[in-house]
Amino acid sequence: MRRQVYPVYQQLYFGAFLAAIAGGLDAYTYLEHGGVFAGLQTGNLILLGVSLSKGQFAKVGYYLTALIAFGLGTIFIRHVQHYFKQNYLKRAYFVLAYEFALMVLVAMISHNAPDVITVILVAITAAAQLQEFRKLQDGPFTSLMMTGNIRTASENLYTGYVHHDVGAQQKATDTGIVIGSFAGGALLSGIFVPWLKDAAILVPAVLVLGAIFYLAQHAKQRPQAKDATESEESAVHSRTERQARHQDDSASDDIEVTHETRAGRRHKL
C-alpha cells in the first residue's frame, strides 16, 4: 500500500520529535521543580484539587500559576499564527526557535531563580508546542497528552488485526511510535536530571534542534519532488501536443487525397 505524502510539519517522525520534547519537559519540571507538569495541565488540575483537599494552599498557588502561564503562552502563539497566516513552514521554524530560546533561558537562570519562575517559562514553552502543532498526517494530534493516542492505538490494533484492515495496522504502528517517543523523552530527562540538575532541560532543547534539522532537510526535498513532477507533466503535455498535431496532419492528408480522387473522377468524365 502506497503511503500518502504529508507536509513536513505533519510527518510521523517530526511528530515523534515533538512527543519526545513534551515528555522530556514534563519529566523535567516534575522531577526538578516541585512535582508540577509543564504541559499536562490535566495532571496539574488533579494535583491542585488534591492540595485543596489537604489544605496545602501554597501548592494550590503553584499549580494555578502553571495553568495561567500555559493559557498566556497559548494566547501569544495564537497571535503569532494570525501574524504569519498561511506561511505554515516559517511559523513552525519560529515556534521551534522560540521553544529552544526559552529552554536555554531556563538552563541559564533556574539555578538561582525560584521554582515558580522556571515552571512559568516551561509551561509557556509547552503551550507554544501544543498550540502550533495540532495535526499529524492530516489527523488531530497532541504531543503533550498520550491518553487519546493510547485509545487510538488500541482501537486500530483491534480493527487492524481482528478485521484485517491494513490501514488500521499502519495507523496503530504510527501511533505507537509517537507514544514510545513521549516515554523516551521522559526517560532521557529521568536519566539526566540527577546529573545535570537544572541544566537537564538542555536534553529536550537538543531534541528541538533535531526537529529543526528534520524540518530543514525534508523541506529542501519537497521542491525538488515538485519540480520533477512538473517536468513529467510538461513531457506528457508535449507528447499530447505532438500526437494532436500528427492527427491533424493525417486528417489534412486524408482530405487532400479525397479532393484529388474526386478531381480525377471528374476529369475522366
Automatic annotation (TrEMBL):
Residues 224-249 have a biased composition (Basic and acidic residues). It comes from the Bacteria. Residues 223-269 are annotated as: Disordered. The chain crosses the membrane at residues 12-31, 60-80, 175-193, 199-216. The keyword Cytoplasm does not apply. Keywords: Membrane, Transmembrane, Transmembrane helix. This is Membrane protein. The lineage of its organism: Bacteria, Bacillati, Bacillota, Bacilli, Lactobacillales.
